[in-house]
Amino acid sequence: MTGLILGAVVLLSAGYAKLSSMILNRLLAVTLPTWANKILEIIQLLSMPAYGVTLLIALYSRNAGFGGLNWQTITSGELALILAGAIGFGFLVHSTIAFQSYRPPLCEIANDSRIIDFRTSGTKRVSDEVTPPDDWHTALVGPGPRRKIALLPGNQQFSLEVSTKTYSLPRLPKAWDGLSIVQLADTHFRGAVTRKYFELVCEQARGLKPDLFVFSGDLFDDMELLDWLQPTLGQLKAPLGQYFILGNHDWYLDPNVVRQEYERDGWIDLSSRCIELHTSNSAPPIVIAGDETPWMGKHPDLSHVSPETFRILLSHTPDNVYWARKQKYDLMLAGHTHGGQIRLPLLGPVYAPSRYGCRFTSGVFWLDPTLLYVSRGISGREPIRYNCVPELTKLVLRSGQSSSIL
């Protein structure tokens, strides 16, 4: 009987953890101040062990596992606990199957990726064995209370996946065939990860030589680090320009000052607007737009854009994808969720501040006619990554393919 009770408590506690994290993810997707987000996170974190202890006491007090439980005498509170855990466990099974069965859409026609570990003296692929230099702690990890988090064994914060991914999009004009975009997302300058790390990331970005650079929000967590922008993203230049939007962490600070600093370094603000891009006099223009909702501004107005025009959207959160789909955007680039930062073996990510939970945590998704790419980002508020390496991605767009391959 004891084994049945403990087994039931473990499974139901796992279910409650899933259910409570789903609720938290959706609460964090709305426009709440940072202190409210912190309170919600603490409540959810404390509620998980409280749930398990309460359920264990309730079952032991009746000296029964599920097989011997007298359901006629169970209280409404105990029944609510069991039902919450059971419902959550069902969601856990569903999300695990979805995570394990994920495959990129058929429009992905090439994917070349390598892992760089900045703790070593050079680059390495996953299979390489390289002994890190003794001074990487000083070069990459800053002072302060989060230093210990950054130095946790196995932490992948100082690795970077650099990818070149090619997608066939049927509405891309032939004159734009081969258009390349490097997306950067979620640097979260805070100090626990030093400026040197971000300079190394931007060196890699510069080496990809795209037609345009885009940054999809959350540059800062500390306004005192405003001068980090020029030696990092400020060094990136592309033939078709550099475009940015802000994210919720920029909104927490002083977004007007952040915009001014971006523009001083040659970046173009896409907040709530769209801009035509031109490659030659004979080629039709394409449009790139920016969306910082729900925190700032409004959805960009496309009423003046021809229905045939190829459309690219930068959105900080992937939650805007269904709006983008209705507006017939061809490509949407987002971040915000950091891939979950920690991906549990088999189960995948648990935390993602999104109305859709972990569905669009990272990766590429086809929602006809929109291709959504969600970056895992470069850093985060907390400098921790497990099974979720930061990423820098170059997307190459190809035209002239039949939509049937999608």
Description:
With 406 residues, the chain is α/β, with parallel strands linked by helices. It has two domains: 2-101, no CATH class; 108-405, Purple Acid Phosphatase, chain A, domain 2, CATH 3.60.21. The chain is 30% helix and 19% strand. The protein contains nine helices and 15 strands. It has helices at residues 2-27, 34-61, 76-101, 136-140, 147-150, 195-207, 248-252, 255-264, 321-326, and strands spanning 108-117, 159-168, 179-184, 212-215, 242-244, 268-269, 274-277, 286-291, 311-315, 331-334, 343-344, 348-349, 363-367, 370-374, 391-398. The protein has a seven-stranded mixed sheet, with helices on one face. Strand 9, helix 9 (321-326) and strand 10 (331-334) form a beta-alpha-beta unit. The longest helix has 28 residues, at 34-61. The chain is globular. Residues 122-132 and 402-406 have low confidence and may be disordered.
Write the layout of secondary structure elements.
Blueprint: H1 2-27, H2 34-61, H3 76-101, E1 108-117, H4 136-140, H5 147-150, E2 159-168, E3 179-184, H6 195-207, E4 212-215, E5 242-244, H7 248-252, H8 255-264, E6 268-269, E7 274-277, E8 286-291, E9 311-315, H9 321-326, E10 331-334, E11 343-344, E12 348-349, E13 363-367, E14 370-374, E15 391-398
Parallel strand pairs: 2-15, 3-4, 4-5, 5-6, 8-9, 9-10, 10-14
Antiparallel strand pairs: 1-2, 3-15, 7-8, 11-12, 13-14
Helix pairs in contact: 1-2, 1-3
